[in-house]
Amino acid sequence: MAFRITRLALSAFFAISIHGIATAADDEKKAAVASEEDGKYFDADGNPTFKIENGTVDWYTFSGYRRYHSDCHVCHGPDGMGSSYAPRLVESMKNLDYPTFISIVAEGRKNVGGGKENVMPAFGDNKNVYCYLDDIYVYLRARAVGAAPRGRPPKKADKPEAAKVHEASCMGG
Hints:
It holds the Pfam family Cytochrome_CBB3. This is Methanol metabolism-related c-type cytochrome. The structure is a single chain. The protein is α+β, with helices and mostly antiparallel strands. The protein has one domain. It contains seven helices and eight strands; from the N terminus they run αβββββαααββααβα. It has a three-stranded antiparallel sheet with strand order 1-2-3. Strands 4-5-8 form a three-stranded mixed sheet. Helix 1 crosses helix 4 and helix 2 crosses helix 6.
């Protein structure tokens, strides 16, 4: 699996090198569902996105909420609201494209400036994170564009069979 995530991170690096980091802020219009495959939703550019209807979130957004609060909230705060030492993801995700997100989470990142050092550790070897990168991304994207409120989603769609297969394959079960 480490090879898979490295390949994914390299793909993200090349996408960043060719296209540059997105500078246009994400919003609900850009995040709108353009296609669906096995219960997973994608925007017009083919990036994973969320679907929330009548207070019910798609399975992947709900899974992202759970996975975020399992591993990411310790530094980035509940619901992506940030902390004294990690950024508010509800803000930074607005200007962070999908390949860059994957690269940062998988490979980590270090920022030094103003006498301060911020380090995002690499999670490329953590199955509880990398098996659910898309889920975490769509949850944070929904939070960033204001489509998902704070807290546990009250209603969720059923888990698609494709999610069960992917999970078993990635987690080794």
